[in-house]
Write a structure and sequence with these properties.
Layout lengths: L4 H24 L4 H29 L5 H23 L10 H21 L6
Helix pairs in contact: 1-2, 1-3, 2-3, 3-4
Length: 126
C-alpha cells in the first residue's frame, strides 16, 4: 500500500466512519456525562480532520503532492488526540490526557503544511 491519494482517501473515509460510530455511541450508549463529553469532543475533532484529509487528496489532485504530509499529521493527530479522549472515556487513567495535546500539535502542523502547500498551487513547481 503506497501513500497516495487513494490511500489517504480510504483512511479518511474509515476515520469519518469511526467518528460517526463513536459519536452515536456517545449519544445513545453512554450514560456518564463526562464520558459522553470526551467521546463527543474526540468524534468532532476526528470527523473534522477526516474531512481535512479528504481535502488533502484534493490538493494532491491539483499537483500539490506535499499535502500528503498534512494528511499524515491529521490522521496521526486523530489517533493521539481523539484516541486519548476515547481511552479516558473508557476508564483509562487521567494521566493519558497528557497525550491529547500532542495530537492537537499534529493537527496544527497539518494545517500549517496546508497553508504552505496552498501558497504553491497554480504556481510553477507546485
Amino acid at each position: 500500500m503506497g501513500w497516495d491519494r487513494r490511500t489517504w482517501m480510504t483512511l479518511a473515509a474509515a476515520s469519518g466512519f469511526a467518528a460517526v460510530a463513536i459519536g452515536a455511541f456517545a449519544a445513545h450508549g453512554v450514560h456518564d456525562p463526562r464520558g459522553q463529553e470526551l467521546l463527543k469532543t474526540g468524534a468532532t475533532y476526528q470527523m473534522t480532520h477526516a474531512l481535512a484529509t479528504l481535502a488533502c487528496a484534493g490538493f494532491m489532485a491539483l499537483g500539490a503532492v506535499r499535502a500528503r504530509h498534512a494528511a499524515a499529521f491529521f490522521l496521526g493527530g486523530s489517533v493521539l488526540f481523539s484516541g486519548s479522549l476515547y481511552a479516558m472515556a473508557a476508564g483509562a487513567p487521567r494521566w493519558l490526557g497528557a497525550v491529547t495535546p500532542l495530537g492537537g500539535l499534529g493537527f496544527l502542523i497539518g494545517w500549517a503544511i496546508l497553508v504552505w502547500v496552498a501558497r504553491g498551487i497554480d504556481q510553477a513547481g507546485a
